[in-house]
Every structure is written in C-alpha cells, then in structure tokens.
Amino acid sequence: MPIAWRGCRGALFLFWLGYAYIRNSHVRIDVFTSSKTPRQQAKLEVFGIIVFAIPYCVVATYFSFLFAHVSFLQNERSDAPNGLEYRWILKGCLFLGLVLVDLAVASVLMRKLVMLFGSPDLAARASSPAASH
After folding, report:
1. Is 44 within 8 Å of 33 (Cβ atoms)?
2. Distances (CA, A) of 17 to 11, 82, 129
3. pLDDT tens track for 23-42
4. Which range among 17-21, 47-51, 89-93, 124-128 shows the weakest confidence by mean pLDDT?
5. Dist. CA 91–CA 110, nearest whole Å
C-alpha cells in the first residue's frame, strides 16, 4: 500500500484524536475508574495527563517536527512514477495532528484542574465534557 494512503488515514486519525479526547468520546478502559467518584476520576485524569500524556506529547511533537522539517528541506518525493510528489505534506500532517492533541491535553488538564480546585459553580460546569453545538 502506498505511503500516501497510510499517511491519509494516519492524518485523519490524528486530526480527530484531540477532538475525541476533549469530548470524552475516545476509547477508555473504565476498570479502575468505574467505582470512583467524579472527583477521584478527575484526580486520576490529572495524574495520567501529567505523568503520561504530557511527556509523550512533548517528545512525539518534537520528533514529528524534525521528521517533517527534514522531509521539507530535502523536498522528499515518492520513488514511484505516480507516487506522491510532496511527501513532506503527509509528514507535516503528523506534526499538526500532534499539536492538536497537545492542545486537547492542555484543555482537558485545565478543565480537570478547575473541577478540582475551582469555585463550585465553575467546577460544576467543568465536570462535563465540552459542550456540543
């Protein structure tokens, strides 16, 4: 399968991953959190974001930028005669998708911190996922 099709599916996944995380519609294993109160769930979420999500996002975003940047500087193209002419576009989508995930993680972290430490009226508004339109 050409890299263009794999890259398009990967870009689609990354562009929607941040949205799904903000809306709390991503795949989640609730074995540990199903018996917890919403406040305990928020504490676990903050812990997971700080310990796992932020370090991963920093490293992945940094290296995806380098990956796309080098591809752009080399004007990387497919070797196939009818292949993708500008391969750096797909690699740039990887970087852009990870930036969107970074923003989503920051948004959820702020919402959970408001839920834990904010005033009661703000905490009530922050306890549910982002409002739908």
Report:
1. yes
2. 10, 31, 15
3. 888 777 778 788 999 899 99
4. 124-128
5. 29
Nearest to 60 by CA among 17, 27, 89: 17
Tokens linked to 7:
């890259």
The pLDDT tens digits for 58-79 are: 999 999 999 999 999 998 887 7
User: Residue 26 — left, alpha, or beta (φ > 0 → left; ψ -120 to 50 → alpha)?
Assistant: beta
Which residues make Cβ contacts (< 8 Å) with residue 61, sequence separation at least 6?
A: 95, 98, 99, 102
In terms of Cβ atoms closer than 10 Å to its own Cβ (0-12, 13-18, 19+), residue 17 is middle
Question: CA-to-CA distance for 29 and 14, rounded, in angstroms?
Answer: 20
User: What single-letter amino acid sits at 37?
Assistant: T
- Is the entire prediction scored with pTM above 0.70? yes
